[in-house]
C-alpha cells in the first residue's frame, strides 16, 4: 500500500489494478468487498480491470464464468469502486496472457 500511495503522490495519476478472476479463489462476494475497500482507500479511488483467468495447459484452475465476472463487477461498482470488464484476447490460439509462458504446472493456494 505504501508503494501505491507513493505512486499517487509522485505521478498524480489514478492507480489501476489488474484482477484475474479465478473460479472459487478470488471471485467471491467477500473478495469483492475487500477489493472495493482497498480501491476506495486511496486519495484518488483506484480502478480495477477485471478479466477471467486464461485457460493454461498444466494449470488446474479455471477462470470465472461470464456471469461470475459480471456479478463481481456489479458488486464492486455497487460499493463505489471503479471497474471495467476486459475481454480475453488470444485464447483461441493459446497466445493470451500467461499461456505462452506455461512450461510447467503451477500450484496455487489461498492463504485465508
UniProtKB/TrEMBL annotation:
Keywords noted in UniProt: 4Fe-4S, Iron, Iron-sulfur, Metal-binding
Cofactor names: [4Fe-4S] cluster
GO biological process, one term: rRNA base methylation
Family annotation (InterPro entries): Aldolase_TIM, Methyltransferase_A
A GO molecular-function annotation: 4 iron, 4 sulfur cluster binding
Name of the protein described by the UniProt record: Unannotated protein
